[in-house]
Amino acid sequence: MPAHHLSAKWRQVKTKRTRKTPATVAPKSVALPETVRQRLEQARREAIDFAALEYLYASVPPLRSVIDAHPPPHFLACDVFTVLVQAIVWQQVSARAAAKLWPRLVEVLETQVPGSIRRSMPHLYVNPGPLASIPDPALLRAAGIPQSRCAAIVEAARAFHAKPDLYHNWNDSIEDDEVVRRLCCLRGVGEWTAHMVLMFAMRRMNVLPVGDLGVRRGFAVVFDLKPDARREQGAAGRRSVLPSPDAVKKFASSAACGNGRFLTVVSYYMWRAAGADVLVPDGTLVPDLASTV
């Protein structure tokens, strides 16, 4: 069976042959400039993303047309607390609505909570320390965010500020399930919010947010997954038209979906196939380009 490869527009990485040079004495260790370090980190991320795309393109035929039709995923390694705050803002709202709420919240924090926002171009960071000292979470209501989410943001700030080793100083050794467990102990933070942190802050490549309706809708569109006929009717007396979370999990681990590899990237393309806009961690809205052509 012939191998399938990404179309030419994805192949922007070229290799160059280099001559072997004799071994030399290693120079003294010198810290890399920040700009160089950022470029190397970006190259590393792009290599991982490219490997994921190439694997899924070859292994999952139904994904090929989706990959060809949409821009590549945009997962950056970002500050965990900042993305957690963004994910709380994004809860149960459309991407377009969230894209309006986020800059409003940033403006409120910059004007009302000095020191809570730090800008280091091109990134923006939310500092939990000043935010933790807010006496009344209702201060954030000026951004148009519901009271319950304002309280969740402030409580998360207090937890991150008081227990940085428990909530903030994470590295690659911490398991995804442990991240979800710790975050879900916070008020107003559920599995979906924790999954957004894993995907958009920690760049974990095997996250499947089955609680996201857009992801489940994408599986119905791309893989023709059907709703569970045994599922109980909803409050409106209508059966769900989407596959159940359990059905999506089971299918995602099968050979038909790449044997459960790179599920973060699969989830991204499920959003795209469902016609959903996607937010990236800096608050930028990435529209569904295919639907606007």
TrEMBL record:
InterPro entries xrefs: Alkylbase_DNA_Glycosylase/TA (IPR051912), DNA_glycosylase (IPR011257), HhH-GPD_domain (IPR003265)
One function term, GO molecular function aspect: DNA-3-methyladenine glycosylase activity
Biased composition range(s): Basic residues: 1-20
Region feature (Disordered): 1-25
Cited CDD domains: ENDO3c
GO CC annotation, single: protein-DNA complex
Biological process per Gene Ontology, one example term: base-excision repair, AP site formation
Domain HhH-GPD, residue spans: 89-275
Keywords tagged on the record: DNA damage, DNA repair
Pfam families referenced in this protein's UniProt entry, alphabetically: HhH-GPD (PF00730)
PANTHER family reported for this sequence: DNA-3-METHYLADENINE GLYCOSYLASE (PTHR43003:SF5)
Protein name (record): Similar to 3-methyladenine DNA glycosylase alkA
Protein source organism: Cyanidioschyzon merolae (strain NIES-3377 / 10D)
